[in-house]
Design a protein that fits this description.
Elements lengths: L6 H13 L5 H38 L8 H11 L5
């Protein structure tokens, strides 16, 4: 596999290898991809939880229940339960 990096990304990878944290550029790229996958999985979990909360709200509305909610609080709760940079 061959990948092309911008100069900025290439410099970043080289600096990480130079720092001694990684043995080679492939290790840096693999770690970056693992972190990206983890972030996407976290976002998917947050979205699923938000959809569940919305479904509950719709069900309550259909039953005529009036339960106030704070969307900001819901989003903060999701962030606490599924931090992006965990």
């Amino acid at each position: 596999m061959h990948i092309s990096l911008t100069d900025k990304l290439d410099d970043y990878v080289r600096e990480k290898v130079k720092s001694g944290l990684y043995n080679n550029a492939s290790e840096v790229i693999r770690e970056a991809l693992r972190l990206k996958i983890s972030a996407e999985e976290t976002e998917a979990a947050k979205l699923a939880r938000l959809r569940e909360a919305i479904d509950v709200g719709w069900e309550q509305a259909e039953r005529g229940e009036c339960i106030p909610f704070d969307m900001q609080e819901i989003l903060q709760e999701l962030d606490r339960e599924h931090p992006v940079n965990a």
